[in-house]
Design brief:
The structure is a single chain. This protein has 8 helices and no strands. By secondary structure, it is an all-alpha fold. Helix 2 packs parallel to helix 7.
Length: 197
């Protein structure tokens, strides 16, 4: 906390306020993220790109909780990023990842009590994408990230500085979409996943 550039030089009350706001935004982001995944995308066989998409596919094949799998994928990425991207980035992202994935596996299932949307796949993709966009926006507003391909993109960018991070992330997303079409054996899953992204 002492090395946190955002909180450096602030009084303990101000630090507590900042941390409280971070947690509140992470919870709201987790709620939006969890509804996106549990209500709209996973039930409709839409694997959004990135770590969430991979976790959704693992859930479909093996039945493991999506948030748990996403956390397990993120932890090694963050350990690698620790030396390169710094302690502040890693701890702030880890906090966000843990809160959001707990909301996916525990908070949202408790709140929605088994409700999920199974209707028009494009509508499910659009709603899921809007809710995920809200979640990411809330997280970025507090200077954090959702981990996953953002971390991979930043690490790869260090080796390949001429390639924009957005292109690296999009390439990763397209890879996950391609895998999803093979796993679900359905071209529509990939197309709707692309709409979602």
């Amino acid at each position: 906390m002492k090395n946190d550039p955002i909180l450096a030089g602030k009084k303990p009350e101000s630090r507590a306020r900042e941390l409280t706001l971070d947690l509140l935004f992470d919870l709201l982001a987790g709620l939006s993220y969890g509804i996106s995944v549990q209500v709209f995308t996973a039930p409709n066989h839409i694997a959004p790109g990135g770590v969430t998409g991979l976790a959704t596919l693992v859930n479909y094949i093996f039945g493991l909780p999506i948030g748990f799998v996403a956390t397990c994928i993120n932890i090694p990425l963050l350990l690698v990023a620790y030396k390169v991207l710094g302690r502040h980035f890693v701890f702030k992202t880890l906090k966000t990842v843990l809160i959001m994935n707990l909301m996916v596996d525990i908070g949202v299932p408790f709140l929605v009590q088994g409700f999920y949307y199974q209707g028009d796949a494009i509508l499910a993709g659009l709603m899921g994408g809007v809710l995920m966009g809200i979640a990411i926006g809330l997280v970025l507003m507090r200077g954090s990230t959702t981990g996953g391909l953002d971390v991979v993109g930043r690490l790869v960018k260090l080796k390949l500085p001429h390639i924009p991070i957005s292109k690296l992330i999009f390439m990763g997303d397209l890879t996950v979409l391609t895998i999803s079409m093979l796993v679900y054996r359905n071209l529509e899953s990939g197309i709707v996943g692309l709409i979602y992204i």
